[in-house]
Amino acid sequence: MAALTHTHDHPITPPHPPGLGPFTPLRRWIDQIEVTNRRFAHLVCRLIPCCCPFERDVTFLGRTVHIPALCKLNPVYDELVGLRFRSLAYLVDVCGEDVTRYIC
Question: What pairing do the DSSP bridges indicate for beta strands 63-67 and 56-60?
Fold first, then answer.
């Protein structure tokens, strides 16, 4: 039986190459935050929204304009979403709380 192999002409890189960019220290710091306190987890879930608050449809003079989600422009967006997810997981798994009020 023959083995199938695939090679890429170019390497696949993550959206934020590790170790590059001025926001790397902040990204690493946010990723290292451990959620070990119920009050902190609730605070994070309240402060970091579950969906982009800027996306909406605006009607002006009979025309509707769609404003797209702008959160992906935030250089630490993925890390903040990860922190929110860790907070939700802590509240559910460790504290046994219902987190449906934090989910859109």
Answer: antiparallel
